[in-house]
Amino acid sequence: MEQAIEATINQADTAWLMVSCALVLLMTPGLALFYGGMVSEKNVLSTTMHSFIALGIITLQWVVIGYSLAFGSDAFGGLIGGMDYALLNGVGLEPQEGSTIPHILFMAFQMMFAIITPALISGAIAERMKFSAYVLFILLWATFVYDPICHWIWGPDGWLGARGALDFAGGTVVHLSSGVAALVCALVIGRRRRPGPPHNLTLTLIGAGLLWFGWFGFNAGSALASNDNAALALVNTHLAAGAAAFAWAIAEWLKQGKPTALGVASGLVAGLVCITPAAGFVSPTWAVAMGLAAGFVCYAAVLAKSRFGYDDALDAFGIHGVGGALGAILTGALAAEAWGGANGLLYGNSSLFFENLLGVGVAAVYSFSVTFIILKVLDLTVGLRVTDDEESEGLDTNLHGEEGYHMGGSGALVE
Question: Is 80 strand, coil or helix?
Fold first, then answer.
């Protein structure tokens, strides 16, 4: 057995995927800091808890059933995986067919994607959702929304993947699905009664930096090998993030008369989101163009929330939903065989463009519908929203019995 494994597993690929797995894990604490700095100081712990509890809940869900639903052998015509990998049955040290890494490492790498995806949604419900409702929500959402969409595109016989839709590292699977779900959450749970400004943008910038760093594993790791495709994805990831940060700053400068640190942080994340589905399929020049487009388009999407009246507290839909859709559509237009993908619309293949457009539409409608049903069921059972008094006093003390900041030994919150 050991000789067979050694003959088929590539050590360089395995080492790179282990590093990438750790990098993607780091993104969830990075997200906690990114989101935590943008809320009021009385809700900083409750907001960071949204990310950290996902590390526990979704890890267990993935081991018990999630991985099998997403990557198990096909059931129901490409809609969902079977139970062959439940409780990691059959997930061992040997590589899968066509792979050069241990199966168990592939499972762990994909687990990190499954963890951060529902955590992204928490940006829309910050400062007003019951913790008990959130815990149940991410468990149900991962099972009934993320796992099926993941199977559709990345599963062994998923129907969208079989039709030719491309998603290198999760523009549709991760960002569009979570971004649309965030919009539904914001609409169903309602606006904050007393929204305030970000309490600590330094935390947000540190979180953005950790996200940028971790995203190299997110995108380049998705090549599943230490090769030229991984190198392309790494470079494209950086180029798009830098271009989008610049574009967002310019957009703010033109609109408001001054660029902001929050804008640059939001812009770089928008660029990372947009390039994710295309990272290993487009040229570096197009990666820059996609980043610039993401900076301007996602900035406009964030501004639009005030016009439409919904309270997406931390801009999860404007950045992840809109950025994911934009990236997936542009992948269908700009991908090229010369850069590791199939030719897109710009290179004479309209089929890829329309398949990616179909994927965006179907995933958005599915995520919207099932998220709405989950939220309504939870609202009728455990309730979604904290009381007015709890919201006014802050969720840290009321839901967790803790405070994020103390003045000396007095226990008073820093004002």
Answer: strand
